[in-house]
Each structure stands twice: as structure tokens, then as C-alpha cells.
Automatic annotation (TrEMBL):
Subcellular location: Bacterial flagellum basal body; Cell membrane
Taxonomic lineage from the root: unclassified sequences, metagenomes, ecological metagenomes
Main localization category: other
Protein's membrane topology: Multi-pass membrane protein
GO-annotated biological processes: bacterial-type flagellum assembly; protein secretion
Regions crossing the membrane: 20-39, 51-74
GO cellular component, one term: bacterial-type flagellum basal body
Name assigned to this protein: Flagellar biosynthetic protein FliQ
Keywords: Bacterial flagellum, Cell membrane, Cell projection, Cilium, Flagellum, Membrane, Transmembrane, Transmembrane helix
Amino acid sequence: MTEAELIEIARQTMVVMLKISAPPLLAGLAIGLVISLFQAVTQIQEATLTFVPKVLTVFLVLLLALPFMMHTLMDFTRSLMDRMVAGG
């Protein structure tokens, strides 16, 4: 395996990692922003107020995005296995 192939695999790994982690992270970011705006408007400074909605939102997004995430990860794994078979 050449250096260029290793760099390409590392690049693909980073892209897959971003694809898989983006839905729950963006959902957590969005709900955190909404709750922060709500806290700023109402001047409620309770730290635990953000915890439950974020956890529920991230859990819901994980359930909804799981097929996409599994498909992405399986495609990446198949491509790695194909490279291993072709290389050895």
C-alpha cells in the first residue's frame, strides 16, 4: 500500500466520521441555541434546563438518522474490505 493510498483512506475516514457525527451534533447545537435564546429572553439561568431537551433531541435524531449512519458506515467498510482483497 502506497503513501497516497493511505492518505486517501485517512481522508475518506474523516469524511465518513463527519457524515456520521453531523446529525446528532447539529441537532444538539440547534436545540442548545434555542434554549440559550430562551434563557436570555426570560433571564432564567438554570444550568440543568438545557440538559434534558438536548439529550432527548440527540436521542431522537440518532433514532431517525440511524439508517443513514449505518448505510454510510457499511459502504465505507465494504470499500475498505475491497481494497484489502485487491491489495493482498
